[in-house]
Write a structure and sequence with these properties.
alpha/beta
Length: 266
């Protein structure tokens, strides 16, 4: 009996150690999720959506891997969903100027568009906007931008973060024309948002830890599993919520790999 208990104890230690090691390893992997959406007005356009980078100091290698993977998809435009910096204070993050300098190597012929997340506002809203725009990344803070991709008109609309700022749909949608894509850091704005061709959201990290048969025990959304991640259709509106690229609170993921979203319209 004593030998059985000892073997059981050793097995539990080995299993726990292996599981922890994998949870620490998974944040350094990458998953590409492809969506093909039937929106004829945007047919032929390819978009990359990436968010929740949470780049800590000394993570240049991880950042360059993300950027290289995105560029290999050859998108028409790149949309960034916020939380580029890490933690609640500047010392826990790679400096935003260094992050933005790396972002300058993104390759998208029709531009890069971004909103800010809660961590960005904690770091310093003006610092983030200045650094990104210095490297030709257009930050949409309750604003919109109209462009043409191969003669196809498209409006990109970005709103401020829900938890640390004040989203203003009236201001953001001023003079906007359809078809439009809405960028919001938090998916919790979705019920109140005007209808667009597509809404892109982040913030939840997919829960970071997803248990078999249970899913994510903790989701950073007031709506719980409703807006966890993936393609969501509700009230004749469509939203994609990414699992994001980084981690928050704890540097672990399980069954919830860092994600780059590729969207092709047909």
């Amino acid at each position: 009996m004593k030998n059985f208990i000892r073997r059981l104890f050793i097995s539990c230690i080995i299993t726990s150690s292996t599981l922890l090691a994998y949870c620490l390893y998974e944040p350094h992997t990458l998953e590409i999720t492809h969506y093909t959406l039937n929106i004829p007005e945007l047919s032929g356009i390819k978009i990359i959506f990436a968010a929740d980078f949470h780049i800590a100091p000394n993570e240049t290698k991880r950042l360059k891997k993300i950027i290289s993977t995105i560029n290999q998809e050859h998108p028409d435009i790149i949309i960034l969903g916020g939380d580029y910096v890490n933690g609640h204070k500047q010392s826990s993050s790679m400096p935003i100027n260094a992050i933005a300098k790396n972002f300058a190597t993104f390759e998208a012929p029709f531009g890069i568009y971004a909103v800010l997340g809660n961590h960005d506002n904690w770091y310093g809203k003006n610092d983030i906007i200045t650094a990104l725009q210095k490297h030709n990344i257009r930050v949409l803070d309750n604003q919109n931008h109209q462009l043409k991709i191969n003669n196809t008109p498209l409006t990109i609309i970005g709103i401020s973060d829900l938890t640390t700022d004040k989203p203003d749909f009236i201001k953001a949608f001023q003079n906007a024309s359809a078809p439009a894509i809405l960028i919001t850091h938090s998916p919790d704005t979705f019920p109140e948002s005007p209808k667009t061709a597509l809404t892109l959201a982040a913030h939840t990290h997919g829960g970071q830890i997803r248990l078999p048969f249970i899913g994510a025990p903790i989701i950073n959304s007031a709506y719980g599993q409703r807006y966890n991640n993936g393609l969501i259709s509700e009230n004749d509106k469509t939203m994609i919520v990414t699992k994001g690229l980084g981690t928050s609170l704890f540097p672990i993921r399980f069954n919830c790999r860092p994600e780059i979203v590729v969207i092709t319209f047909q």
